[in-house]
Design a protein that fits this description.
mainly alpha; elongated
Length: about 210
């Protein structure tokens, strides 16, 4: 697992803070990456950002609002990471599988954040920006599926079904890995397991 390199948090200049919201988001993200959900409080984020305990309330009404903003950024980071992998691949099927590999790598590098992104702790229906960010992440999978369909590689299966199939396989594998379940049932490294599942997935959606 790669060690996360944290971005420096903007510090207040005198009485006013140049970018308080951004500083708090970076602080909150660092807390989550290091300690998971239990590490994130408004007070802890303020302390990490070097501001007063009351400062977070200028931008976030409560902890849930701060958490939602962190998760929205997580989904957008996931979207950017997987889309870069999609674009860099040379063929539609390779793009489809590259998205899955990048997804697994993201989950492996940010297990605490990943669990929160897909967990029930934050009510996503109450945060439109978070819902939109989640759709952006799924949109990358859908674009890769559309490319496969346009190339005639999925038979009569719709791009939406192909996208959901791929997402379900990768998300399930990522969840098994981050929860420590996968290592209890196999000694094979994650890339080997992923490659086997990707082969099954591609064979399953290919036309006959």
């Amino acid at each position: 697992m790669m060690k996360r390199r944290f971005c420096p948090i903007p510090r207040p200049q005198g009485y006013h803070h140049g970018d308080l919201r951004r500083a708090l988001l970076l602080a909150a993200r660092q807390l989550v990456d290091r300690g998971g959900s239990s590490a994130l409080t408004l007070r802890a984020a303020a302390q990490q950002a070097g501001v007063s305990p009351a400062a977070p309330y200028r931008h976030f009404e409560d902890r849930d609002a701060l958490l939602a903003a962190v998760l929205a950024e997580g989904f957008r980071e996931l979207a950017a990471t997987t889309d870069a992998a999609r674009i860099s691949a040379s063929a539609p099927v390779d793009s489809y599988l590259a998205v899955g590999s990048a997804y697994l790598q993201f989950a492996s590098e940010h297990p605490h954040l990943y669990r929160l992104m897909f967990g029930p702790e934050c009510n996503k229906l109450q945060h439109p920006d978070l819902l939109e960010a989640g759709q952006e992440a799924f949109g990358v999978v859908l674009r890769a599926a559309h490319e496969c369909t346009a190339a005639g590689l999925t038979g009569s299966r719709s791009p939406e079904d192909v996208a959901i199939a791929g997402w379900s396989v990768v998300h399930g594998l990522a969840s098994l890995q981050t929860d420590g379940v996968l290592e209890r049932v196999t000694q094979r490294p994650l890339p080997d397991v992923a490659q086997a599942l990707f082969s099954i997935l591609v064979e399953g959606v290919a036309p006959r």
